[in-house]
Design goal:
heterodimer, A: about 400 residues, alpha/beta, TIM Barrel, 10 helices, 19 strands, about 30% helix, globular, B: about 725 residues, Growth Hormone, Chain: A, Rossmann fold, four-stranded antiparallel sheet
């Protein structure tokens, strides 16, 4: 007799399998209980419509119709989307042949922060900034500090209902001098930021743009008219690294820096030094030379310490030696104000006069212990110290 | 014993068993060190291991017509010799070549890369089992003998590794020993069978490999590639895993199993983890520090007028490292305790004012036992009035994803069931401060009033109003209704698993459905006796997981006892597969059915016995004995079941060996994976027992209904 006769028939197997499944389900009853717990946590979230458009949708500012679909012209990713599709940033959808933002008035993070935390050291020091962010991002950095927001769709995050007027009112009620569009990537909530910034100006609030600067020229120029200060994260000075680490490219970020400068927006630049990725001192030197050659000598440059985070957990913290070395390279290249961030008690938190070398602002954390800048000038030698000090 | 060719094959089988178990343990450690260590990854690697070995055993039957099986055995022995070392080297070197430098791998990447890397070794060892079975069973069916000899090898290998090798040698050194033993066995086999060419070629390959290993420091080469840009200045391997120290400029970076423990000059973490809790107490005197003493926290604690610090590490090697690098102050007030923290807290008569826990996230069952209701209750018994405890979790200050809300809610609610007040202080991590006395979020006010001089925890960096705002934001985000984390229903590590997977947006459900379809397909294809073996293997590996996890919870993590439990498991397999059949004149399907039924009942009762043990405070000796007996019982039954299965079915040896072995392994693989990663945290150990027990009893029912169609040898 063949071995196959030993086998149970498929029909019988299914039959017995069904009995078995019933038995297993009896035991698995408590899975539902746990699943119920998780969904209850989720049910605290605002009621979000399953439709593509919702209360927080608004027609996008920058897009064109092409034979291949709707092309977003907000950022260099230049997504071409068909009906119903969502852009790489997870915040722009095509609906009835038009491009809509779905992050208009629904930030998921709202906090009050010291302005120094952005970091902005030469802009309204020691003031508070009302900081907002929506879900989504047009980059995908492996070391993202706010990956919970940036790599999510606004439909998956827990959001506030805060239309521009209400946002401005809230910022005023919390005694903030500015609104910072920050945390994730404000470019993806461009329309919300733009409208809020206009209302903020009418209410004597400043607008701060904290971004990776991965945006097209036209929208950047338009936005610059309503922005008072910006901190642009220049993530590296290599196109390859931009592609591999951030899913972006270098040139558009350099263009953004130039535009902000031309449009007279107060600009500070951050460069995060990640071991094995962006700690090549030759590259840092090239970056600093480019900044100097292109007229950014007066723009404060912040070298920031890397902390193992998100997907980049198998790297060490940046050593302070590396940060100090980078700072020296920048000073040698002619950058006037170079700071080190995320290092407690570093002297490189202070502002020194680029002319006489005297200590002008002694900082400790987000506090200023002494300030010798008077009328935008060094109290000791009258050198003009760039910044928005009052 | 006369060294006949037949006996040399027996020796080869034992060596294969030794090689398999040592390679499995070493590779598992290496994978966890290079990738990321959580319960699911351990399960995946073990599942891949058994799946591939099973597939190898199945493929082995295609070699049944090959005339010169000895030459195949020699070739396989050579592969088994060289592959472990090559696999570890490739894993270390390829990690940062194939994937972005320093990045964590996604679930799919881990499944895929561990599968690829394990193929050569595991498939070869599976093929070897079937070929050994064919070779040994020339006269009569002796598949169970191969199973027995391999289990015996595993037993020997387990003892040698856990009690000798891991104490004296590094992974590469151990694998070099394995390489040598396997080559010698292959050469011996060639000589005994007068296969001069094969013997010469094998010897040459052996010499080439030995020269490479001795000439080049492949250990250093692989580490420096894995930690590119860092100068590895110290490494140590002990039974808990790998520890090493790298230097980047002036900074020292400490790693345990590939996970960064700390870097020097991390002022923020040192101060936050100590002062947020210490400041809450009016006069902290006795401090219990669980982990983190080496990084500089002791210096922070000494800013207070304390009497004593009891300091424990979950890996004693860290204290050794701290001493080597001079990071542990030599002061009378510091009392270093070399014991499992849970065991110590159970036994100590000391009482504390502040308990500072600086453990990793509860991503594994081993760490999770420090985050449970039972553990917090045990700690509470050892606290003075007004005492404060502190633990922390990774979190974003700006926004909590739903997975983070889940993990944070579980810990918050678990603490809340034991302490009247729980405050969250958001910093670089979320600090959970718990006490029965009032707690304050006015950190800077407390620092100033106590005149503690800090670099970071002070009013220059912190603002009480902003701390309050962020703390309320986190607290309001949490769910008060979330379940609490319990010893025998450790939902926290399942939550951590979901959080980790949310990094990669992997669809857990999709993966589970794929596994389920694959399983149903396999089960429909194989003989019903093999389905029984699958269920038995499932029960056995689940029982082993339950026993190991429960022992750590009830008693504490004591490496050599964990080693004894694993060793007893192997011994039980050997006894059950070889010695037990000798007591029976003949074995028939009724034995199989009865045994399967007993296994079903055993696995249902097992969690109940364990919970009974945890509630009745048994004497140490009795508790250990119960766990040893429970281990032996299931492993003897599993070994015996395998032996019966191979004896009662009428089939050709190659197919029989291939199918039986692969079914048993497949069941074990699925059992290890599902039980540890999913079932225990999700439904608790009692329900796991019931579920797997029912599965076995259903198999009994099916086999009983089909008993007349099972053709046996009688």
């Amino acid at each position: 007799m063949s071995n196959s006769e030993n086998k149970i028939s498929k029909r019988n197997f299914l039959k017995y399998g069904l009995y078995g499944t019933c038995g297993m389900l009896a035991g698995l009853g408590s899975i539902d209980i746990i699943a119920g717990e998780i969904s209850k946590i989720s049910s605290k979230l605002p009621d979000i419509s399953k439709d593509k458009l919702w209360k927080w949708s608004k027609e996008a500012h920058f897009y064109i119709s092409t034979p291949r679909g709707i092309k977003c012209r907000l950022c260099p990713q230049a997504c071409v989307l068909e009906e119903g599709e969502t852009g790489d940033c997870k915040t722009r959808v095509v609906f009835e042949n038009k491009l809509y933002t779905i992050v208009y008035g629904n930030p998921c993070a709202i906090h009050v922060d010291p302005i120094e935390k952005k970091p902005l050291f030469h802009f309204l020091p020691e003031s508070r900034s009302f900081s907002v962010a929506t879900a989504g991002c047009n980059l995908a950095c492996l070391n993202c500090q706010n990956w919970q927001i940036s790599q999510s769709s606004p439909k998956d995050t827990s959001n506030y209902d805060l239309m521009p007027e209400k946002l401005v009112k809230e910022a005023i009620s919390r005694n903030c001098k500015s609104i910072a569009y920050t945390y994730s990537e404000p470019i993806v909530f461009y329309e919300y930021m733009y409208d809020s910034a206009k209302i903020a100006h009418k209410n004597n609030l400043k607008n701060v743009f904290v971004s990776a600067g991965y945006i097209e020229e036209k929208p950047m120029r338009k936005l610059a008219k309503v922005i008072d200060a910006a901190n642009i994260d220049l993530k590296s000075f290599s196109n390859d690294i931009y592609e591999m680490l951030n899913a972006g490219t270098l040139q558009p970020v350099l263009n953004t820096l130039k535009i902000l400068k031309e449009e007279n927006v107060w600009l500070e630049i951050t460069n995060l030094i990640i071991p094995n990725w962006t700690d090549d001192f030759d590259m840092i030197k090239k970056m600093c030379n480019w900044l100097f050659d292109n007229g950014f000598a007066d723009c404060p440059l912040h070298f920031s310490r890397f902390t193992p985070m998100y997907k980049l957990t198998q790297l060490p913290y940046t050593s302070t030696t590396a940060l100090n070395k980078a700072r020296q390279i920048a000073i040698d290249a002619g950058i006037k104000f170079v700071y080190i961030g995320n290092v407690v008690g570093s002297k490189a938190e202070n502002t020194y006069c680029p002319n006489c070398g005297k200590l002008l602002i002694e900082r400790k954390g987000f506090k200023i212990n002494s300030n010798f800048i008077k009328n935008n000038k060094c109290s000791f030698c009258d050198e003009k110290i760039s910044g928005v000090w009052e | 014993m006369k060294l006949s060719s037949h006996n040399i094959i027996k020796l080869s089988i034992i060596i294969t068993g030794i090689t398999a178990v040592i390679t499995q343990i070493i590779l598992l450690r290496e994978f966890l060190s290079v990738l990321f260590g959580n319960e699911l990854i351990m399960g995946i690697i073990l599942a891949n291991w058994m799946l591939l070995t099973g597939a190898g055993a199945y493929l082995g039957k295609f070699f049944s017509n090959t005339k010169n099986k000895i030459s195949i055995i020699i070739s396989l022995q050579v592969i088994l010799a060289i592959m472990p070392i090559i696999t570890v080297f490739a894993l270390n070197v390829l990690k940062n070549i194939v994937f972005p430098v320093g990045s964590m791998l996604s679930l799919f990447e881990i499944i895929f890369s561990s599968f690829i890397l394990l193929v050569p070794f595991c498939v070869s060892s599976g093929i070897a089992f079937t070929i050994f079975s064919i070779e040994i069973s020339k006269n009569s069916n002796s598949i169970n003998k191969v199973y027995y000899l391999e289990s015996l090898g595993s037993l020997i290998g387990g003892i040698i590794l856990n009690f000798i090798l891991l104490f004296f040698f590094s992974a590469f050194q151990i694998l070099t020993i394995i390489l040598t033993i396997n080559f010698l066995a292959a050469i011996l086999l060639a000589i005994k069978n007068k296969m001069t060419v094969a013997g010469t070629i094998t010897s040459i390959i052996f010499l080439i490999f030995l020269t490479i290993i001795l000439k080049f420091d492949i250990e250093e080469a692989s580490l420096s590639k894995l930690y590119e840009g860092q100068n590895i200045i110290y490494s140590q391997e002990n039974q808990y895993g790998k520890l090493f120290v790298s230097k980047t400029d002036e900074q020292l970076n400490f790693y345990e199993n590939g996970v960064s423990l700390f870097s020097t000059n991390n002022i923020i973490e040192n101060e936050e983890s100590v002062h947020y809790a210490m400041l809450q107490h009016s006069a902290p005197k006795n401090i219990l520090l669980i982990s983190g003493g080496v990084s500089g926290r002791i210096k922070e604690i000494l800013k207070y007028q304390i009497s004593k610090i009891d300091y424990l590490e979950i890996n004693p090697g860290i204290i050794e490292l701290g001493n080597i690098f001079g990071f542990i102050p030599k002061i009378m007030k510091l009392n270093i305790i070399n014991k499992d923290a849970r065991l110590f807290i159970n036994e100590t008569q000391n009482k504390y004012d502040v308990v500072l826990m600086n453990l990793p996230e509860p991503t594994t069952a081993r760490i999770n036992r420090f985050y449970t209701f039972e553990f917090f209750s045990e700690i509470k018994k050892k606290l003075n009035n007004n005492a404060v405890i502190s633990i922390s979790l990774n979190s974003s200050q700006n926004y909590l994803s739903k997975e983070e809300i889940n993990t944070n809610s579980i810990i918050f609610n678990t603490l809340k069931t034991c302490f009247k007040n729980v405050k969250i202080i958001p910093g670089n991590r979320n600090y959970y401060i718990a006490s029965d006395t009032n707690l304050s979020l006015q950190i800077t006010r407390l620092v100033n009033s106590k005149q503690i001089k800090n670099d970071y925890v002070n009013d220059s960096y912190l603002d009480d109003e902003l701390i309050k705002q962020r703390s309320e934001f986190i607290k309001n985000s949490l769910s008060t209704k979330s379940k609490i984390n319990k010893d025998f229903k450790p939902i926290s590590y399942y939550g951590q698993l979901l959080l980790w997977m949310s990094y990669f947006k992997n669809n857990f459900l999709f993966i589970s459905i794929l596994v389920l379809i694959f399983l149903v397909f396999i089960l429909m294809k194989i003989n019903i006796i093999s389905v029984g073996l699958f269920a038995g293997g499932f029960a056995a590996s689940s029982a082993e997981v339950i026993i190991l996890i429960s022992f750590q919870i009830i008693y504490g993590y004591v490496y050599h006892i964990i080693g004894i439990i694993i060793t007893l498991f192997m011994a039980g397999l050997a006894i059950g597969s070889y010695f037990l059949p000798k007591f029976f004149k003949e074995l028939n399907k009724n034995h199989f059915i009865k045994l399967q039924f007993i296994i079903g009942i055993y696995i249902i009762i097992l969690p109940l016995i364990i919970i009974l043990c945890s509630t009745l405070n048994f004497e140490k000796v009795l508790l250990h004995t119960i766990f040893y007996v429970l281990t032996l019982l299931i492993s003897i039954m599993t070994g015996f079941q395998f032996a019966i299965a191979t004896k009662i079915r009428k089939s050709k040896i190659p197919s029989l060996a291939a199918e039986s072995y692969s079914s048993d392994l497949l069941g074990s693989a699925i059992g290890a994976l599902l039980t540890s990663a999913l079932l225990i945290p999700l439904i608790g150990i009692i329900n796991v027992g019931i579920l797997i027990g029912f599965f076995n009893i259903i198999c009994v029912l099916i086999i009983w209904l089909k008993r007349n169609r099972i053709i046996t040898l009688q």
